[in-house]
Amino acid sequence: MELHTTDRDGARILSLHGALDVAATGHLWTPLLRAARDARGRPLVLDLAAVTACDSAGATLLIEAERVHRGDTTTEAAAPHVAAILARLRAVAEPPPPGPPPPPLTWRETILAGLRQGSDGVVFLGEVSVAALRAPRRAKMFRLPDLLRTADQAGVQSIPLVLLLGVLIGLILAFQSLIPMRQFGADIYVASLVSIGLVRELGPLLAAVILSGRSGSAFAAEIGTMKVNQELDALTVMGIDPVTMLVLPRLAAALLVMPVMTILLDLAGLLGMSLVLVGAGLPLAAIAHQVEAWVDPGSLYGGLFKAAIFGAAIALIGCRAGLSTGVGPRAVGLSATRAVVGGIVVSIVLDGVFALMFYKLGI
Amino acid sequence: MTTPDIVQVDHVAQRFAGRLIYENVSFTVAPGEIFVILGGSGCGKSTLMRQMIGLLPPTAGTVAVLGRNMYGGATDTTDHIGVMFQSGALFGSMTLLENVMLPLEMHTDLPASARAAIARAKLGLVGLADSTTLMPAEISGGMAKRAAIARALALDPPLLFLDEPSAGLDPVTSAGLDRLILDLRHDLGATFIVVTHELPSILAIADRCVMLDRAAAGLIAEGNPRTLRDSSDIPLVRAFFHRDLPTHQAA
Description:
Chain A is α/β, with parallel strands linked by helices.
């Protein structure tokens, strides 16, 4: 495809030669539009006598050249099939210019949106509470197989990951603590440090991260897909409460599995710590004595209580993300992301609240 | 003595974010009728159906089903209506048999063996007797729609809503579904409200229909579809039934 530029009687003549197909359009787009722009202020003639073929991309280029010229433009000597496709594309209504982008949210709107989301969350919490209170009368809707399946997926199937992370975190914490503590001859206190850290904080928190990543996202994706597929509508018209049937089993499963996951993570962490300390020459009996002396039942029960609350929060956030899924497959992905991020953030915030609360209560 | 209408839609309107979808929509459906809501894409047919089954309160107007206002407080008509959604909406984690058994499990005290027998019979009615153990992901679109009809029939409701039963199906499967709807009406005496824009289906099954139009934002015709096809003087109705462009778009 070639472009020749000539002048005739004060008009700029742009002559095209060859087939004006999509490939040729790509080559010609910039030079032809530049030539059309350069011809502003005088008539422009698009000489198509030597154009052997033209597809919709080529016709779009010719129309675009007329548009950028902004003046008197004529096409000349177009073959019938070229003229036909040009006429067809000219008849397509020009799309309306895009509207101005929406103004950025003001701080007031942002705060209001946040408050609205918060109030929606409170409403959802209320719905779940009512569903839980009514559950005995709606026992058929609370499906035990769903609870067991969810407990299996969220808890049993996560055990290898829980144990691996537990051992690794115990190893890392013990190793990193041992180096500075050894300089003060306080090797044995590494056992106290790591065991308290694991049982009170890291055990429940890491279990929450695992639950949120593996199961919070799964809850959101499962329920979100059901919403997109109109299955939630089908439940509603059948007189089945989606909160009772879908949310309560997941909530109960998360409440059940989180303390177990936390105990396993604690034990695996203590094992990892022991491996490092035994390797560093400390006797196992001394390590066990140190752990027993420092980890009191209050710390253990406090950690397990926190784990259960984290589990409930993660399940509720995941289910709510699923129930509020928008339209289309992208919405399911967004819900899963919201569930993971929300689950982790809320767990950490709750952990901070619990830290303050336990400090005040002297636990 | 006249039989009371099974559905009464009275001056119903719907707006989304201030945008008017339709208004002043009124019609009634008599028991035993196959009543079709038709219209072009985006005119609000499925929205109107959602209002009739209790999923979407109308912006204005009232919807009464089986003599009860759907949005007038504690109204529970769920065991009196059956709904087949456009996508089928079968529960993906359950077999076809379990899908059909679910409404029976929730709303009756039948033993499990009786529920299974009834569910098998319903699947047999729609020609899926040999597919009871299949999961929804393992069946074709036409089978999914038939299974969804079987689930809608589970409690023998007097009123069934079908949303686009023929959409996306080949002509033979679609004709089979039309036949099934006619047979079920004949055998069970149920009333059907069908949302569709499939012309052959409308002409094959409908006793009466209403036509919604997006530009008019409401109903533009009501009556027997064959009568509307042959003698309506409304350009949009004529264009719909004769698969033609309306006069103002044809030029």
